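Aim 2, interim progress: modelling of the fe (ii) ion-bound target.
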Amino acid sequence: MTSPLKTDRPAPPPAPIQQLHHYAYRAKDAEETRHFYEDILGLPLYHIIQSDYVPSTGEYCPYTHFFFRLQDGSFIAFFDLGDDQAAAPSPNTPLWVNHIAFRLNSLPELEAMKARLQAHGIEVIGVTDHHIFKSIYFFDPNGVRLELSAQVADEFQMLKESTTAHTRLNEWTARKEQWRRDRAAGKVAAPLKPQQNDRPEVAARANAQKGPAS
Ligand SMILES: [Fe+2]
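Predicted structure of the complex, ligand included:
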């Protein structure tokens, strides 16, 4: 049975959630990670917590938890579990999917950060044009994919785009439900593709690079 699509949804009640407090990953080595985030990226080491027991669960797992501060007072944080083990990448998710993006104020700042990273020998992808913002991509020493983004669209444009988000997601959900039925019936095996393509220039570029079929 198809779930009802919400077309005139009421605004959700406001939540007192203000901003990112911190996002935490596993670090292979605290000093290697500190060098990258503090010396190269420019985020100061600001806080450290060390303990033998995990406060939330009570389990025994000695750790060094350390935080780097962003300009807005939020943090990116890491756990060194004292074993020199890196977090394994997700076995069923492409490397570019799971990532964290930090916002810069301008395109010149984005270009300057790209040059700064490259001067330290870090491989950088981009500048990539996402229309509403532009980004560069790179990996930290732990295999965490990072993105730096400079917003291009203003608040008005973002507000305008937000008015179509639910309609588009509902359309996707309805097609997904049909795809699940078709898959259960053995009619399809491939993943579902979006109906709309917001980035036709990327496909055109990829096809041009392939060149004529030999
Ligand atoms: Fe992103």
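Residues 99, 101, 147 surround fe (ii) ion (CB under 6 Å). The chain has two domains: 22-156, 164-195.
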